[in-house]
Specification:
Number of helices: 4
Number of domains: 2
Largest sheet: 5 strands, antiparallel
Shape: elongated
Order of helices and strands: EEHHHEEEEEEH
Radius of gyration: 22 Å
Helix content: 40-55%
Length: 193
């Protein structure tokens, strides 16, 4: 790459390269990272939380929980089996959605070598090329809905399949400046929230 007149900057734990061609103003960025079990569990919790269906279910269960609790307190008598079930349902739902299911799926993910091998993200004007030693997929910008920013991850949400997302750990960046360059590049094509 240096021989072609392009300038390349690399970093160790998450190599980022910014390439600026001589005659073109196209930018590209390359990131490397290796996902782990904790990554999968964390991003699944985040993804489940942002889904409208999960929020509607939690809201409905919270209302039902409050109503049943009010009835039990107002009656002053021990709760019935029906009331006990409704009192247990919300915490069981939360435990399932945010603890059991993400942990179970993360355990499955780490058993699949394709999901825990080093991944490369290459961002350019065409989209995001995500590859590892087993496969590659180009996610074109117009097929993507947005980039969701969280404390530890970036989630790239699909427009075509609302149950599909890709994630990038923030640890892939070596400095805030490199992360800012990534965000500036993505903002050219997608909303960032």
């Amino acid at each position: 790459m240096l021989g072609s007149g392009n300038h390349t900057a690399g970093i160790s734990s998450g190599i980022i390269s910014l390439c600026f061609g001589r005659r073109t103003l196209s930018e590209s960025m390359i990131l490397h990272y290796t996902p782990n079990q904790q990554d999968y569990a964390a991003v699944l919790r985040i993804f489940f939380w942002i889904r409208t269906g999960t929020r509607v279910s939690l809201g409905s269960l919270a209302i039902a929980f409050g109503l049943i609790l009010y009835v039990i307190i107002a009656q002053g008598s021990p709760p019935t089996i029906f009331e006990l079930i409704w009192l247990l349902l919300p915490p069981l739902f939360v435990a399932f959605v945010f603890i059991i299911q993400p942990s179970r799926l993360a355990n499955k993910a780490v058993q699949n070598e394709q999901l825990v091998t080093e991944a490369t993200w290459e961002l350019n004007e065409s989209g995001v090329l995500i590859s590892n030693r087993f496969s590659s997929i180009l996610m074109e910008w117009d097929s993507l809905q947005k980039l969701l920013v969280t404390r530890e991850y970036y989630l790239l949400l699909s427009k075509k399949n609302r149950n599909t997302f890709r994630f990038l750990p923030r640890r892939a960046f070596n400095s805030p400046q490199q992360e800012d360059q990534f965000l500036a590049l993505v903002r050219k094509y997608l909303p960032v929230r």
